[in-house]
Amino acid sequence: MAWEPLHAPEAALESEPLFLLGANGGGNAKDKETIIWDESRRCFAFRWPSLLDQVSAKRFFQDLQASAPWDQLRGRHGNVVRSTCWYVRNGCSCGYTYGNARVGLTRSICSQFKKTMEDLTALVFSSLAPGLSPDLWPNSANLNYYADGLQSVGWHADDESLFGGKCQDCSIVSLSLGGRREFWIALKDDEAEPIKETVVEVDLQDGDVLSMEGMMQKHTMHFLTREPHHRAPFWPPRINITWRWIVNHRPCCFLRHSATSAPCAKDLHVPQSFPGERVASSPWMKPWPDEFQHPPKEWRCCMQCRHNGWQGGRNCVEVKGEWLCRHCASACRGQEVDPTDRMVEELRRRLVGKVKLLQKKRCLRNSWESFCDRNQGFRDPGRYSPTLLLSWLESVDEVPEDLQKVLQEAQAELATMSVDGSSTKEKLVIQGDQERRRQNKLLQHRRKKHPDKAQKGGAVLRLDVSELYIAARRSLSALAVLGSLGLMISYLRFILIV
Length: 498
Ligand SMILES: O=C(O)CCC(=O)C(=O)O
Ligand SMILES: [Fe+2]
What we know:
Elements: E1 33-38, E2 43-48, H1 54-67, E3 71-74, E4 80-88, E5 97-98, E6 101-102, H2 111-128, E7 140-146, E8 153-156, E9 172-178, E10 181-187, E11 200-204, E12 209-214, H3 216-219, E13 220-224, E14 238-244, E15 298-300, E16 314-319, E17 322-324, H4 326-332, H5 339-360, H6 368-374, H7 386-395, H8 401-417, H9 424-430, H10 434-449, H11 458-497
Antiparallel strand pairs: 1-2, 2-12, 3-4, 4-7, 5-6, 7-14, 8-13, 9-12, 9-14, 10-11, 10-13, 15-16, 16-17
Helix pairs in contact: 1-2, 5-8
The chain binds 2-oxoglutaric acid and fe (ii) ion.
């Protein structure tokens, strides 16, 4: 279904000019893509592929990964759904809450994080809007860290009162760093649910910028899909920064009573030029290969990668009797496989191979099965994230010498194979699994102290109780010796006196 025009349209661009980054010729304007151009709803979205070159994107990824004060957001089952952090600038001190998650105000911001964010803001906005004065650059940003393809963001609109997006124009500019992910946009129905038939699929690659402008937050929703299940745990991490303009500051913010407003069209200082496809460009079909632009789509689970993005499916086309998503349909037609897909498959194949090799040598005390039991009964090593696999490899007791080499190789490979070059060790740190690291350290310490006895959990507890018992017995015998000594002394004194 196309995005049918609204019966009661929003204000026309002519009567109410709009601050539109996508219409001012900034960025690498010739590569800019118009993803949504819906004048009746005043909804506009643009993508600037590779606005950041690969070297800068990698540098900023590493800086933010290490310096941002990430907070883990957990789902209903205690799993980490993603990590976030919130950044405010220009004197603003507002916190940020969405859904039932509160992500700000971040407690302590290190100077490295502040510097990285300021540099990044300057780089992106001096490129996208060269005429815009720096004091009009956005005053806040929400950052998301997706450790793998299982972490995501559900359907939502960034329509909180802070940004005023429910009733006025509201621009949001998003930068993607790291692994490629799929971003979907759809129209909102009367119950604030996305309308499946209007889904627009966008791939966001390392260094890409996407803007959502005008009334996008009022009429549409967006969603970052999870990747297909068997590949998701191996998906390279991604960082996303979404800059926003806070226009209604919170009561506790220093800027509460200052008149802050988002920039308007004249602040761009250039005449806006509207793209050629001004009339109706939605739904945006560009990511689909040419031959699949027109054939009918059905909402199904892809028969090849089993990806069911939302409500059991995603847009699929029929290819040789099979219903396939656009990635599998392209691969099926012999088109070049995306480098992320290729890398993920290779990483998965290698690591699973190593684990199976370790499994075969059944001389390990801490068996793969016991690890599986502790981790909710998964049986297939291919379904584990590299992080979990590594934690298992590290928890294996008394790895025989020949296997130690295999383990070291697997770890070295993991460290070098991620697309962005960041090692899995770093990933462990960023996930903030401090409790597990603390316990591992404690365990290692105990192992060193009692090499013959130390085991996990109950065994360690037994060790402590038996130690207590021995200590108590020792003190009792010491007391008995002291007592008898005392008695002897009094007896001797009595004899001497007599
Ligand atoms: O990661 C993304 O691309 C989307 C993030 C997002 O929608 C948000 O932070 O509100
Ligand atoms: Fe969002």
